[in-house]
């Protein structure tokens, strides 16, 4: 019998066999472990627990304990600047260079205001609100090449970053979002699908109120007149001609800001978004309106 | 599987003719029960909470205005995730330093396509706690051996030393011993990839 015939025959055999399904497959070898504790030659004696001590008795020492030695973690004096590190807010960085790259590769639309939702939507930035991440820190890498006119909203920015954006005729705002709002901003679709009403954004905690009300940092709670003064002051400091916003053809887009209680652009707190029927439910009840306006 | 079904049928046997007893349990011989079909008779005295009828409809407490296709829907669409990675629209300049692939690269006997994120598939692989650095060129199509020779020549000219490479023809990648990612990127851009 030639090899061709063997192939034909085995293929014919295979065709007559039942289809592979969950009902006729076997587990991978070694995937099931015998939970019985063997005796004697079948894994008896010490049963894999070793000879004497913690292994056999499961009285494992606490972490860092060195059986009476002065433990390593207590040997040097404490470092107070790490105190409360697990409570501090973190702002995962994204640089101006990366933002420019997102714009160049059409991941970000600069004809619309950019916020954390649109940056996460690009798929190349991620953050985890449950791990004390409170939004974007816009860093200064690539500030010399940055040349897009944008209306951007970030959570933390330095002076030179603000200057780099305003030099190109753009606008930057620093805004605070509470973790719950950030969860919604990270994945708006899954939130809309739950059918819940959009909540209000919370006000910043006391230690950052100063940052978000300062015009130098372009805080979202700052006085707009003071911000325009600061824009001029910064342009004089860094030595560039400040483009006039009012004469810009995208003036309306550049002036678009969120309400301090608003999470998404154009969508007010209290609204329910129905993705399937493409409709928006707006509350009419006076009590609700008052609640969401406060 | 068979054993599982038999046991479920055995369970259902208790409820034959007594469908009122099965509340949310729909494992009743393939018939899907709705709450209406198994509503508890009203003559029962409710000594136990489990005997009371199911809640049928929760009354809506607040009044809502329902708007179909409102003008604000554009703001919702802006938030929905991208279906595909958007193709790059040609521009005059790319300030970020990103370079678009050129058409003439397709005429070469070897080819390296961009990744789905429009980047070059050239990576630095660091292993052995940073002791071993290997530059990896992936997704190579066409004459991989010719490409290997050219890369070797280019790097030898730039760095003035022997460059060790490894070609995996089936896996379609070339590994270059050492960190030459930037130089290799420059070479790939010069070829138009």
Pick out its properties.
heterodimer; A: 294 residues; alpha/beta; Ribosomal Protein L15, Chain: K, domain 2; three-stranded parallel β-sheet; two-stranded parallel sheet; extended; B: 193 residues; alpha+beta; Translation Initiation Factor Eif1; four-stranded antiparallel β-sheet; two-stranded antiparallel sheet; 4 helices; 24% helix; elongated; disordered N terminus
Brief overview:
Chain A is α/β, with parallel strands linked by helices and 294 residues long.
Assign an overall shape of chain A: extended
Query: How many H/I helical runs of chain A?
Result: 12
Shape of chain B: elongated
Order of helices and strands of chain B: HEHEEEEHEEH
Biggest sheet character of chain B: 4 strands, antiparallel
Query: Sheet with the most strands of chain A?
Result: 3 strands, parallel
Low-confidence stretches of chain B: 1-13, 22-41
| CATH fold topology of the domain at 88-266 in chain A | Ribosomal Protein L15, Chain: K, domain 2
Helix content of chain A: 25-40%
Subunit arrangement of the protein? heterodimer
Helix-strand layout with pairing:
The complex is a heterodimer of chains A (294) and B (193).
Chain A: H1 3-16, H2 54-57, H3 72-75, E1 93-95, H4 96-104, H5 116-121, E2 137-139, E3 151-154, E4 156-157, H6 159-167, E5 171-174, H7 179-186, H8 188-193, H9 206-213, H10 224-238, H11 251-254, E6 272-274, E7 279-283, H12 286-293
Parallel strand pairs in A: 1-2, 2-4, 3-5
Antiparallel strand pairs in A: 6-7
Chain B: H1 2-13, E1 64-68, H2 73-79, E2 110-111, E3 122-127, E4 132-137, E5 141-142, H3 144-159, E6 165-168, E7 173-177, H4 181-191
Antiparallel strand pairs in B: 2-5, 3-4, 4-7, 6-7
Pfam family, one (chain B): Img2
Main location (chain B): mitochondrion
Subcellular location (chain B): Mitochondrion
């Amino acid at each position: 019998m030639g090899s061709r015939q063997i192939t034909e025959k085995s293929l014919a055999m295979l065709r007559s066999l039942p289809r592979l399904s969950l009902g006729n497959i076997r587990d991978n070898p070694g995937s099931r472990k015998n939970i019985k504790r063997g005796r004697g030659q079948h894994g008896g004696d010490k049963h894999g627990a070793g000879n004497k001590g913690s292994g056999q008795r499961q009285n494992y020492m606490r972490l860092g304990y060195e059986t009476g030695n002065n433990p390593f973690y207590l040997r040097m004096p404490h470092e107070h600047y790490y105190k409360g590190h697990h409570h501090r807010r973190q702002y995962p960085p994204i640089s101006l260079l990366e933002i420019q790259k997102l714009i160049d590769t059409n991941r970000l639309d600069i004809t619309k205001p950019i916020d954390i939702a649109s940056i996460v939507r690009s798929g190349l930035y991620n953050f985890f609100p449950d791990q004390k991440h409170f939004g974007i820190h816009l860093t200064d890498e690539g500030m010399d090449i940055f040349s897009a006119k944008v209306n951007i909203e970030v959570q933390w920015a330095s002076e030179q970053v603000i200057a780099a954006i305003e030099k190109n005729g753009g606008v930057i705002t620093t805004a605070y979002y509470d973790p719950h709002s950030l969860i919604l901003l990270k994945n708006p679709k899954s939130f809309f699908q739950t059918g819940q009403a959009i909540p209000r954004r919370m006000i910043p905690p006391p230690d950052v109120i100063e940052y978000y009300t300062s015009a130098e940092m372009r805080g979202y709670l700052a006085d707009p007149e003071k911000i325009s003064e600061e824009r001029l002051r910064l342009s004089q400091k860094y030595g560039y001609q400040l483009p006039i916003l009012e004469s810009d053809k995208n003036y309306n887009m550049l002036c678009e800001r969120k309400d301090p209680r608003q999470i998404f652009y154009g969508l007010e707190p209290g609204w329910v978004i129905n993705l399937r029927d493409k409709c928006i439910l707006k509350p009419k009840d006076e009590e609700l309106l008052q609640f969401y306006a406060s | 599987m068979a054993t599982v079904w038999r046991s479920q049928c055995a369970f259902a046997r208790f409820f034959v003719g007594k469908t009122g007893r099965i509340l949310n349990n729909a494992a009743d011989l393939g018939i899907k029960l709705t709450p209406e079909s198994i509503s508890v008779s009203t003559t029962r005295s409710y000594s136990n909470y489990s005997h009371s009828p199911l809640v049928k409809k929760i009354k809506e407490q607040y009044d809502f205005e329902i708007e179909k296709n409102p003008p604000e829907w554009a703001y919702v669409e802006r938030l929905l995730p991208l279906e595909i990675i958007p193709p790059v629209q040609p521009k005059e300049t790319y300030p970020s330093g990103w370079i678009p692939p050129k058409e003439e690269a397709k005429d070469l006997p070897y080819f390296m396509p961009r990744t789905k994120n429009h980047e070059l598939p050239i990576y630095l692989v660091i292993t052995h706690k940073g002791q071993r650095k290997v530059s990896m060129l992936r997704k190579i199509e066409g004459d991989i051996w010719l490409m290997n020779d050219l890369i070797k020549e280019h790097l030898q000219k730039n760095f003035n030393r022997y460059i060790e490479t490894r070609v995996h023809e089936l896996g379609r990648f070339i590994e270059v011993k050492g960190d030459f990612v930037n130089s290799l990127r420059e070479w790939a851009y010069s070829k138009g990839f």
